[in-house]
Design brief:
Elements lengths: L1 H18 L29 H10 L3 E8 L5 E7 L2 E7 L5 E3 L1
């Protein structure tokens, strides 16, 4: 009986440790966060076109248009920034790059 109780306690402690591990998915960067040095990063992008546009607008871009997701999962289009028309990209992590 004592072995059953000790085994139960051991299993309970092990399952608690597994739950406490950190997540392996990268969080979406906050608006105005600096882009990853290697951006735009290829990957399975779960942003919708509207979310990509909203992210660009939250970072000071306007007149966002022509957003299309390429074969690498990167949203690409054009926008205005500081009065200039620029090409922009939004990758799966939310990194914004200007081309």
């Amino acid at each position: 009986m004592r072995n059953v109780v000790l085994t139960s306690i051991f299993c309970a402690l092990m399952s608690t440790a597994a739950v406490a591990q950190t997540s392996t998915t990268a969080p979406t960067p906050s608006p105005n966060a600096p882009a990853d040095a290697n951006a735009p990063l290829p990957g399975a992008n779960s942003f919708t076109e509207g979310q990509a546009k909203s992210r660009l607008e939250a970072n000071g871009y306007s007149n966002v248009s022509g957003l299309k997701k390429d074969d690498n999962g990167v949203w690409k289009g054009t926008a205005s920034h500081s009065g200039a028309q620029v090409s922009v990209s939004v990758d799966y992590r939310g990194n914004i790059t200007r081309n």
